[in-house]
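Board notes, transcribed. Complex of a protein with magnesium ion.
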Amino acid sequence: MSATIDQAIAALERGDLIHLPTETVYGLGARADRPEAVAKVFEAKGRPRFNPLIVHVADRTQAEAIGVFDARACKLAEAFWPGPLTLVLPVRDREAMCDLARAGLESVAVRVPAHPLAQAILRGFGKGVVAPSANRSGRPSPTRFRDALDETGAHVAASVDGGDCDMGLESTVVSLMDGEARYLRAGLITRAEIEAVIGTLADEASEGHRSPGRLTRHYAPDAPVMLNVTEPPADCVYIAFGPTDFSGPVVQLSDSRNLREAAAHLFAALREADALTPACICVAPVPEAGLGEAINDRLKRAAGFIG
Ligand code: TXA
Ligand code: MG
């Protein structure tokens, strides 16, 4: 049974997950400003990695409050919104799209979907909603209501039935970072259609063949980061997971060793530890189960083990 628009909005307000029908695929939606809500998205997808997500908003005015639009962004928004185009822009409002949702990047991916039910939910909620495809990790994106329910229904508080998705393919992603326009993810809006509006796109190869989601400059602290530390040295800041008897400065991921809470605190914890300018940041072992895999993946990036 389909949830109503009002039920979906109430679920978003509570920080719960929804199924958001869009013209491309069904999204697994959560409010973008609360890391605890965003952590639920990664958890529900299973085998999670903290890839940066797309923030969905009702219109261009809301989009401009979250990202910084240059002339090309304005032209693309004018030509293709609402519709299956996502723009990667410098972030303007870091609270509206929290660190966890951006994977700590200085950029933000924004999209204004055209689907009337997505529009109704986003307009009623009035704020940004992150929504990756509603499948479990590694499985095809759901394009029918029952597929969305099968994939992630157990984790979702309000599933809105929008019928079959018109397009069935995720949005085209274009980055406008660093003064270059790049076609990051192919979609129904083709490279040629984008080029017709803003001119020739930069060669992706010049980015070193990095695929979106694995892109550059994930937040890494200035201090060196050491992982799986159980006996931290005196001159470090210790990022703990649960009770510790360390006598130096401690930043706690989760007192109760709750992985969802730890995921929600992760980026803030790294920043907080770094702000103390320690000789090094030591991080307690975090179990690999469930969300732990994504937390550890992110920690390894912060420590420089993964590029
Ligand atoms: O059609 C769609 O876009 C669907 C529907 C539900 O709206 N959503 C979707 O979201 O496909 P997701 O999270 O599965 O895809 C996000 C894409 C990934 O390729 C990700 O790497 C890229 O956007 N992305 C997000 N933020 C980025 C950023 N700051 N820089 C570069 N790429 C980014
Ligand atoms: Mg997907």
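Residues 132-133, 141 surround magnesium ion (ligand 2) (CB under 6 Å). The domain at 5-210 is CATH 3.90.870.10 (DHBP synthase).
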